[in-house]
Structure formats: structure tokens, C-alpha cells
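User: I'm putting together notes for a lab meeting next week and I want to include a structural view of one of the chains we've been expressing. I don't have a solved structure, so I'd like a prediction I can at least talk through. The sequence is below, exactly as it appears in our construct file.
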Amino acid sequence: MKCTLSVLLTLLSISSISALNLAKSAECGVRGGRIVGGSPAERGEHPSIVSLKVGTKHFCGGTLISEEWVLTAAHCVDDSTARLMSVAVREHNVFGPELPSALIVKPSKIIRHGDFSSTTFENDIALIKLSQPIRLEGDEFAGVACLPDDDSETFTGQDAIASGWGRLQENGGSPAILHQVTLPVMSNQECSTLLGGYFNIGRGQICAGFRQGGKDACQGDSGGPLYIRKAGKDYLVGITSIGIGCARPRLPGVWTRTSHYLSWIVQAINTH
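Assistant: Thanks for the context. Below is the predicted structure for the 272-residue chain, given as C-alpha cells.
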């Protein structure tokens, strides 16, 4: 569910960024073998993406950043959700069986940012600790994303990749297969001008999309990744957060900027 204001609740060619790898047993950002206006991804193309489910129903995305931690949006999860949900790792087809099958893991803890606002969607970030670590060695369909190691890059004008199982058009149907779309990152200043009538864009957010619309994340993509590819690695630079509808002209999507929250992420993991 990409969160959209009033109607609907709602990735970077890195020039000099270094990787923050939180995994102990695997290299981060390595790929294995709709999103509105996007196309199907190959299985293993984004091995760090996970599906959050209640029963067998997908409701949000997330990204594996270590063997036992997933990053997602705060608006996707809370303490009550933890009792009902599961995390599907190496998922590709959310509607049918596949081999090897997805790994289904229950969460042991959910940590939402203490200053998350369900009104403004500021600090829309949460961590999910898995009840057991994922074995990643030799698994071409499961992996961890790299995180940027500092908050110095804005990524403005660079191409990013959003990925998820969200609706293929506003109020439309959802795909069985993981989809992806490439979007240009927009400056926060331009984004604020376009979205100023709806909400403020802060330093902890990153915007992407085309002024003419046509491509975007949508409902069901919430919590999922916005990646930038550098030297063959996926860097997680955004978490799908909010937007006005899906792929409308002059209304870019908004993601939580992961680099702004590096200290919070590391502290939360070290504390728990």
C-alpha cells in the first residue's frame, strides 16, 4: 500500500558513495541471475526485497539489510501487526508456488522510529528483527542491500530503481510477479514546489519521478526499496513512503531517505 494523501495511504547512479554492509556472511548489493509503467523483474534480480504478509496476502514490501534485519516503512507495521505478519524472503511470485520456495520467517521485534508522524509521514522508517537469521551463503535468490555510508549525496538527477508488487495503475490490479521501474531522482527543492500544497518535504525524504507522470510506485509498494546501482551493487537509498495517487503528472513519489537515518539504524540494531 503506497500511502497517498486523503485518497490512498503511499530509487541513483552513485558517483562516490561507499557501502555500509551490515551482513556478517554475505557481500551486500549483489544480484542473482508493477509498479506503474514498469516491467517484470527476473527472479533474483533484486534479492534483498522481501514481501510482508498477513496469512498469504502481501501488504507491504521491505528490504533485507542483514541476515536478521529488514528495513521497511513505519506506516506498514506496528506492534499489533507483528503478531499477525510474516516476512517472505526470496519471494518472486506472491500468488503462486515457485522453486526454490520462499523462506517464511516470523518477526521477533518491530522497531518504529519514535518520531514517526502518520499525518506528515516524517520519519517513515521501521526495522523488523527476524526470529531467526537467514542463511545467505550460496543462495542466488536471497541477499542483502548495501546502505550508503554517509548522508553527503543528494542523488539529484540520477536514475533509481523502485521495485515491488504494488498496483500496476492507480486503483488497478496487482501483479503476481515482482515489478521494477526506473525513475529520476528529483531535488527536494523541486519536489517541495510540486507537492507543497499537500505536505512538506524534509531532509529525511527523497523524491523521484517524471514531471509528465506515467511511472511511479503505487499501493502495495509501500515499505519497499528504492535502489541505485553502482559497480554492480544495489544501494538502498529510499523506502517507499507517500504520494498523491500513482504516476500523476507533476506529483512525484516520496521515499524515506535511508542515508539520513544511518545513525538511527545502527543504534537500533546494536541495542536490540
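A couple of points you could mention at the meeting. Residues 262-271 form the longest helix (10 residues). The first strand starts at residue 3 and ends at 4.

User: Perfect, that's what I needed.
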